[in-house]
Specification:
This protein is mainly β. 0% of the residues lie in helices and 62% in strands. The protein contains no helices and 26 strands.
């Protein structure tokens, strides 16, 4: 989608479909240390009317139109999805896990990577759009420490993707009944390693997680057929979550997240036509949004869970759970008011004639108070 494309209030044709699935699995204990879970899932999807269904040539031009009535199916997809998970216990505190899974997705996210228009649309499978398919393998090591107070894990994964969709350069993806003609299809791969350290017991609990990953695509007609980052390609992703219980009725929490900015397409030049200046785009997703990070804080005050009374006959204290319970939560979103970029627009400076990048941020620090109860 070109930056500055008009926003329309025109209705577009709705899409309809029916999805179904069935799954069987079995668990097999090879030994007291080695466990295997395997199964297979059958999934299907039927695209149906009412609506006008288009067929396109290689250039994305409509070559045929067929009208289908309400409830009339015009395309079916059937897929088998095998699953396998294995767990081997090394000793009392550690284990190794491995898995394989195939998945099919019948609803597709089309991300517009132009920096000034961070819009996403969802498209169902159709006669033109095949289901996206992935095959993923994982291998991980898991270990507990200090009598299960701490848990550590490291897990690697690799995913092969097929039938991914992207759009032609200059495509209008919003409010377009013929958007399928602007789509291109290709393959993808995603791989990475995830590390997690969690404290599970005590007044102070929480976890630290780090993911190093890549998500890449290869689509004929985009970037000269070379591999390029997906919009959601986040190389580094860090999360720190802490919780502390001061007492049964007072608890505090803090969470900090950090990740590499999304891959986006920035203009690499500009040209003028009929007195109008247009941006020129070259490499798809060849740039990055600024790094994202923020800190969230919270404090929860719990109401009394029990009420006490004295037994008149025995003089003993009786504790009974209250039917009405409530709590207050005080929180601050983005506590240090980081101005994270929501979108970046490119505007021409009237004084210098130079094109400048202008960042738009939505929220700084946002405090909130929540009162909840149950009975």
């Amino acid at each position: 989608m070109e930056e500055g494309a008009p926003i329309s209030d025109e209705d577009v044709q709705e899409s309809y479909g029916l999805e179904g699935a069935a799954y069987i699995m079995d668990e097999f204990k090879v030994s007291s240390l080695f466990n295997v879970v395997y199964g297979i899932r059958y999934s299907n999807y039927g695209a149906m009317g009412p609506g006008d269904i288009y067929s396109y040539d290689a250039d994305g031009d409509v070559i045929d139109t067929t009208t289908y009535a309400s409830g009339e199916f015009y395309q079916w997809y059937h897929n088998l999805e095998p699953r396998l998970a294995m767990n081997y216990i090394l000793n009392d505190v550690s284990s190794v896990k491995a898995s394989y899974a195939r998945n099919n997705q019948y609803v597709h996210l089309l991300s517009n990577s132009t920096s000034g228009s961070p819009t996403d649309i969802w498209l169902p499978s159709s006669n033109n759009i095949k289901p996206q398919q992935s095959d993923q393998v994982t291998l991980g090591y898991f270990r507990n420490f200090k009598k299960n107070m701490f848990e550590f894990s490291v897990e690697g994964y690799y995913k092969w993707l097929d039938n991914l969709i992207d759009y032609r350069t200059g495509a209008q993806t919003n409010f377009n009944d013929f958007v399928e003609g602007d789509l291109l299809y290709g393959a993808g791969k995603a791989y990475g390693v995830e590390l997690l350290l969690r404290k599970k017991k005590g007044d102070f609990t929480g976890w630290v997680g780090y993911t190093l990953s890549r998500s890449l695509r290869q689509v004929d007609g985009v970037n000269d057929g070379n591999w390029y980052p997906a919009r959601q390609d986040r190389i580094h992703d860090i999360s720190v979550v802490t919780m502390y219980s001061f007492s049964e009725r007072v608890a505090a929490s803090a969470s900090w997240i950090y990740y590499t900015g999304d891959a986006v397409t920035f203009p690499s030049g500009k040209y003028e036509m009929n007195g109008v200046v247009y941006n020129y785009y070259s490499e798809r997703n060849g740039y990055r949004m600024p790094t994202y990070h923020r800190l969230d804080l919270g404090l929860t005050l719990y109401g009394k869970k029990f009420k006490t009374s004295i037994d008149p006959d025995t003089g003993e204290e009786i504790k009974k759970e209250k039917k009405f319970q409530s709590n207050w939560n005080f929180s601050v979103y983005n506590a240090y008011a980081r101005e994270n970029a929501f979108q970046i627009n490119f505007e021409e400076n009237e004084d210098t004639g130079q094109t400048e990048a202008v960042q738009l941020s939505l929220f700084k620090a946002v405090p909130s108070i929540t009162y909840s109860f149950n009975f």
